[in-house]
Amino acid sequence: MEEAFRALLKADAGVTALAGARIDFGAASDTSGPYLVLWTIGDGAGRTLTGSDGLSRGRVQVDCYAVSYAAAKRLSRAVRAALDTHRGGGFRAIFHDATRDTREGGNNEAELPFRISLDFLTYWRADHA
Questions:
Q1: What are the C-alpha distances in Å from 7 to residues 14, 24, 102?
Q2: How large is the average pLDDT for residues 34-46?
Q3: I want to staple 59 with a disulfide (CB 3.0 to 4.6 A). Which of 41, 51, 69, 85 is the partner?
Q4: pLDDT category of residue 108 using cuts at 50, 70 and 90
Q5: What is the pTM for the complete model shown?
Q6: Cβ 44 vs Cβ 57: under 8 Å
Q7: Residue 54 pLDDT
Q8: Which residues pair with 123 in a beta bridge?
Q9: Per-residue model confidence (pLDDT) at position 41
Q10: In what order do the strands lie in the sheet with 35-48?
């Protein structure tokens, strides 16, 4: 699911116009401009009384970083437009669930990036990817 989720963002012209290829799970590989860091927050198999239904239900957090609040917000809006209500490939659906605006902590606040965190609920079936 993670590979397909990242591929959706990398294929979206609005997202890549702002973040380029700076879209990674777990840690940023390039912080030279606005960038995204993706986190799998939860991923569990769907269950019925007779076993798994084959559908994975999860949550992915997308952290949008930039040197200004306005740039981070623009990137977050592009991400939301790309993913919210998406359906296709292995994704039965992706829904935006929550947004948080923050700033990284540290000693030199003037140099720290702004962060907009978006949570997405994912419904994924690997055999349809």
A1: 14, 10, 26
A2: 92
A3: 41
A4: low
A5: 0.90
A6: yes
A7: 78
A8: 57, 93
A9: 96
A10: 23-25, 35-48, 51-66, 114-124, 91-103
Task: Give 71-95 pLDDT, tens digit per residue.
Answer: 999 999 999 999 999 999 899 999 9
Please name the residue that has the structure tokens 């030279």.
32
Give the C-alpha separation, 50 to 37, whole Å. 37
User: Phi, psi at residue 114, to the nearest 5°?
Assistant: -85, 150
**116 closest CA partner among 55, 35, 52:** 35
Q: Are 115 and 64 in contact (CB under 8 A)?
A: yes
* The 3-state secondary structure of the chain, one letter per residue: CHHHHHHHHHHCHHHHHHHCCCEEECCCCCCCCCEEEEEEEEEEEEEECCEEEEEEEEEEEEEEEECCHHHHHHHHHHHHHHHCCCCECCEEEEEEEEEEEEECCCCCHHHCCEEEEEEEEEEECHHHC
DSSP bridge pairs for 45: 56
Please state, in angstroms and rounded to a whole number, the distance separating the CA atoms of residues 54 and 24. 27
Closest CA to 112 of 51, 68, 47: 68
